[in-house]
Recover the amino acids of this structure.
């Protein structure tokens, strides 16, 4: 494909880190040195979601989430009761299923269950549906939310290399705030989240084959415009990054 289109028309190649794709992209870079190797930002964020979802503290809540979604997917009567109650309460969107290979879909599914919780509570109270819900679901959504939203934004066709660094930085800052300021999670859980987040950040940013994401962010015209206006967001972002490196 590269030969057909023309090597000079390519500037980067992006893939995950499986053996075949890693070998192929390295061969492309050796043959065409100007084609940069770009780590897959969404894939790495998805893997971070997977790391968090595999933690022991979230196993029960994810299991309950799966059972709840399965119940509604199998019961036409339950779905209809929920649909009517959502319409009555003005809840526009319903439940979202969990994908088999996309860990971030657990966030969207959990968020959808929380969104529909007022309707579910009324149905349970009236005895129409018998369902058990764990309060830990909110903690799971809280941790996964910045990651899930970042993946959704970075999958846009309008995202740039600058956006990759910006959204990863935002994820790290958000998780840092949870670790420092949230008292609903145990210290051991926070430590596990910190280690998983650090590991993925290092793989994605610090050990990347090139610094294209950070460079793109630094030379982003939007950031340059802010600097000329005296806002200097790069300085504040760097302070956030320094805090993350030192504490998260």
């Amino acid at each position: 494909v590269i030969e057909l289109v023309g090597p000079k028309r390519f500037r980067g190649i992006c893939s995950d880190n499986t053996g075949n794709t890693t070998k192929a992209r390295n061969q492309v870079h050796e043959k065409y040195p100007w084609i940069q190797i770009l780590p897959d930002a969404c894939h790495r964020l998805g893997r971070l979601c997977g790391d968090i979802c595999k933690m022991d503290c979230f196993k029960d809540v994810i299991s309950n989430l799966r059972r709840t979604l399965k119940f509604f997917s199998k019961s036409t009567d339950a779905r209809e009761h929920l649909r009517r109650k959502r319409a009555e309460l003005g809840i526009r969107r319903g439940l979202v299923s969990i994908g088999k290979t996309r860990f971030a879909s657990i966030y969207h599914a959990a968020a959808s269950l929380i969104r529909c919780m007022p309707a579910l509570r009324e149905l349970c109270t009236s005895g129409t549906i018998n369902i058990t819900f764990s309060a830990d679901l909110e903690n799971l959504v809280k941790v996964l939310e910045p990651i899930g939203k970042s993946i959704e934004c970075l999958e846009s066709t309008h995202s740039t290399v600058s956006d990759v660094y910006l959204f990863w930085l935002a994820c790290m800052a958000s998780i840092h705030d949870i670790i420092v300021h949230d008292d609903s999670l145990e210290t051991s859980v926070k430590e596990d989240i910190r280690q998983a987040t650090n590991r993925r950040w290092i793989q994605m940013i610090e050990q990347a084959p090139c610094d294209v994401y950070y460079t793109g962010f630094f030379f982003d015209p939007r950031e340059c415009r802010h600097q000329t206006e005296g806002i200097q967001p790069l300085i504040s972002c760097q302070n956030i990054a320094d805090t993350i490196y030192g504490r998260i």
